[in-house]
């Protein structure tokens, strides 16, 4: 008994193996996911660069990664007139207020090429504008150079547009330019034609004549508007040529019927008018 009591106690060590999470699956998916995120970041960065940079800036970025850039002095990959650019490039097409490669460009993306206007052309346009202003002054009576009497001046309105100098002759109550319903000119119309021949004879620009009349009552069986407006324009052309204006300088004669009104009331006498236009050189 004493021997048993003095014996060392037996120590039993139990080792328990703990398995959690269903086992180890590896980390390959993390690498694939990281590659995907990196690719998406590069894609969106590319989209941002394409939208936020100009054509020249994109060329610079492309040239940075181009190993042949020290050899090619002209960027774009071509040796033609545009250095590899197309004629629709914003930097090559003429600057005329419209876009080049874009259908409806913004102000920043409009064409920035040369205007194509030489110094001589600009000076000629300025000289022509001065001539037009001088002729208008003569018709209005500025500076004591009027060639129009007071009786004739009340039939005249002048204005300068992009097309040229427009001189408008119009009817007044009790003082028509043509006999009613016909293209037979009144004496005042002959006088006005003579003034036009003298004033516009001082320059070499081409001439256009346009006829307008007031609207006719709808009860008429046949509307004479087109024929009458054209006939009156033709009559004034003949009077101007008979007064000494060169026939070869008449560019066109047009009748607009009652389609273009001078005042709101379509049947107003004021709509009966003939316009003589001294055309600018680039509007012929």
Produce the secondary structure layout.
Elements: H1 2-5, H2 28-52, H3 55-64, H4 119-140, H5 150-153, E1 156-160, E2 164-170, H6 187-200, E3 207-212, H7 225-242, E4 250-255, E5 273-279
Parallel strand pairs: 3-4
Antiparallel strand pairs: 1-2, 2-5, 3-5
Verbal overview:
By secondary structure, this protein is an alpha+beta fold. It has 2 domains: 28-85, no CATH class; 119-283, 2-Layer Sandwich (60s Ribosomal Protein L30, Chain: A). It has 7 helices and 5 strands; from the N terminus they run αααααββαβαββ. The protein has helices at 2-5, 28-52, 55-64, 119-140, 150-153, 187-200, 225-242, and strands spanning 156-160, 164-170, 207-212, 250-255, 273-279. It has a 5-stranded mixed β-sheet with strand order 1-2-5-3-4. β1 (156-160) and β2 form a beta hairpin. α6 (187-200) packs across α7 (225-242). The longest helix is centred in the N-terminal third of the chain and has 25 residues, at 28-52. Mean pLDDT is 79; it is low at 69-74.
Summarize the structure.
By secondary structure, the protein is α+β, with helices and mostly antiparallel strands. The chain has helices spanning 2-5, 28-52, 55-64, 119-140, 150-153, 187-200, 225-242, and strands at residues 156-160, 164-170, 207-212, 250-255, 273-279. Helix 6 packs across helix 7 (225-242).
């Amino acid at each position: 008994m004493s021997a048993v009591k003095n014996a060392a106690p037996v120590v039993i060590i139990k080792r328990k193996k703990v398995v959690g999470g269903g086992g180890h699956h590896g980390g390959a998916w993390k690498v694939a996911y990281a590659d995907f995120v990196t690719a998406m970041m590069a894609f969106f960065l590319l989209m941002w660069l394409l939208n936020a940079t100009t054509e020249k800036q994109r060329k610079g970025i492309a040239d940075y990664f181009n190993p042949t850039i020290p050899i090619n002095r002209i960027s774009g990959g071509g040796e033609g007139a545009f250095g590899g650019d197309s004629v629709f490039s914003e930097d090559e097409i003429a600057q005329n207020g419209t876009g080049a490669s874009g259908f409806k460009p913004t102000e920043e993306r409009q064409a920035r090429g040369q205007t194509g206007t030489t110094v001589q052309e600009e000076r000629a346009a300025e000289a022509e504008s001065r001539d037009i202003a001088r002729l208008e002054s003569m018709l209005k009576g500025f500076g004591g150079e009027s060639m129009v009497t007071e009786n004739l001046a009340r039939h005249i309105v002048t204005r300068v547009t992009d097309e040229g100098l427009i001189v408008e002759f119009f009817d007044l109550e009790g003082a028509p330019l043509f006999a009613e319903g016909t293209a037979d000119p009144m004496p005042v119309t002959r006088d006005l034609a003579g003034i036009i021949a003298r004033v516009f004879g001082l320059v070499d620009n081409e001439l256009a004549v346009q006829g307008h009349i007031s609207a006719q009552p709808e009860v008429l069986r046949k509307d004479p508007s087109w024929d009458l407006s054209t006939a009156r324009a033709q009559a004034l052309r003949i009077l101007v040529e008979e007064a000494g204006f060169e026939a070869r300088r008449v560019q066109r004669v047009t009748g607009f019927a009652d389609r273009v009104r001078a005042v709101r009331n379509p049947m107003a006498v004021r709509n009966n008018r003939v316009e003589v236009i001294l055309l600018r050189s680039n509007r012929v």
